Amino acid sequence: MSIPHSQLRNEIAQRLGSVQAKMRELSYDALIVFGDNKVRGSLRYLTDYFPDRAGWVSLSATETYLFEGAAFVLSTAGEGVLLCDPGLTPSKEVIAGAVVTGGFAASKDIGLSASYVRRLLSDWNARRVGIETWDRFPAPLYLDLVKALPKTAFVKSTIVEELRLVKSPLELELMARGARVGDRAHAAVVETLRRGNPTELELLRVAEAVMRNADPVYEDMVSLSPSLICSGGTVAGGLLHHPRGGKRLERGDVVHWDITSQHEGYAIDTSRTKALGRSTDAQRRAYQTVLTIFDEVLKAARPGVPAVDLVTLAVDVARERGYEYWGPFLGHGAGLDLHERPDLVQEATPLAANMVLAVEPRLALGDQYLLGVEDMVVVTDSGGVSLNTFEKEPFELGDA
Predict the structure, then answer these.
(1) Is the CB of residue 72 less than 8 Å from the CB of residue 81?
(2) What's the rounded Cα separation, in Å, for the pair 263 and 340?
């Protein structure tokens, strides 16, 4: 069941109000929120629109244009315009009620272009303009704007990025739904392993079919991180890799799968590990250490704790038990983008209640096996609470 548009419309209206209040605090006259078909969460947060494809489009017999992005341009006074690259298909309803311009068959000057943005900012007499998703903002567009508006200051903005760190009750419910779908995908993976000896590729296709079929909204998967697997050995030097159609799973393998998708726009990211048949003492000991790390990290995931402290904790617990922690990568924030802030590697941002983290501790056994688990976890005053409930034990899948 999809979320009613009226509910989402009210939610986005509240988000816009929060953004504009922060814009006034920072003396912004306007804000440009850019997104492309790789990183689109901030754009979608304010519009429910996302760029759905990328490629080349011809603007004339001799000129081509590379399209993949869109931008929501918002004034402090409340006006908003969604500008789409020519070549995009802005057929999805824009909840914000903004004017939509550009898109398929449009000229370069109508959609996301310096000339159109310049007209908007000039009409609004904008002298200080924030740019969200600064690191991905198109360089040609930025240079053209700076040249066309020499009296306007364009500055890096993180207003929307920071608001997105903490999830609303509606977002938490949507992510809980997605986690339950991920649990059903894990169940399908285990059942497939019990029935026979699939290839890595066949196994992950089973999981992805479950997740896609459960989503009430049709959306292209675009460039979410792909589902990955390790069932013995490295590929291109990496233990966690794309599934191989030629690698069949056999008794004695330890299979670690990390499945990703989305549900009503929000990320699903979760992983499990099973030993096919009897495991070794070394494998069981390493897996129990992974579970201990996971439990200790959840206990520590409280408001005010710097995100990087969770990584330090994971490393310390592993070393206390005689292991070098894998990575050191512990996970990341999750939401409308699959990999969001806070990054659980070295970011010092303090955790806050209702952040959602993908917590994924792992240990490697040489260059053969990777053992780990991953849950989507909500930060609360009493510690992290998993949205996923699919079993982490037993480790051994005896009927495989």
Answers:
(1) yes
(2) 16
| C-alpha span between 372 and 356 (Å, rounded) | 19
**Rounded CA gap, 289 and 323, in Å?**
9
Q: Alpha-carbon distance 176 to 164, whole Å?
A: 17
Host H or E run for residue 122: helix 114-123
What would the 3-class secondary structure string for 21-88 be? Answer: HHHHHCCCCEEEEEEECCCCHHHHHHHCCCCCCCEEEECCCCCEEEECEEEEEEECCCCEEEEECCCC
Please give the radius of gyration of the chain, using alpha carbons only, rounded to the nearest integer: 23
CA distance 171 to 262: 13
Q: Is residue 328 reached through a cis peptide bond, with omega within 30 degrees of 0 on the bond before it?
A: yes
Please state the length of the chain: 400
Instruction: State how far the Cα of 355 lies from the Cα of 347, in Å rounded to an integer.
Output: 14
Q: What is the pLDDT of residues 81-125, one digit of tens each?
A: 999 888 887 666 666 556 777 766 666 677 888 999 999 999 999
Which residue carries 């050995």 as its tokens? 233
Handedness of CA 320, 257, 183, 161 (dihedral sign): positive
Q: How many whole angstroms separate alpha carbon 24 and alpha carbon 337? A: 27
**Secondary structure letter of residue 135 according to DSSP:** G
Q: In order of start, what are the domains of the chain with their CATH numbers?
A: 5-163 (3.40.350.10), 169-397 (3.90.230.10)
Q: Give yes or no for residue 53 having a pLDDT over 90.
A: no
Contact 85, 111 (CB under 8 A): yes
Question: At residue 370, does pLDDT exceed 80?
Answer: yes
Q: In whole angstroms, what is the distance from residue 54 CA to residue 36 CA? A: 9
pTM of the model: 0.94
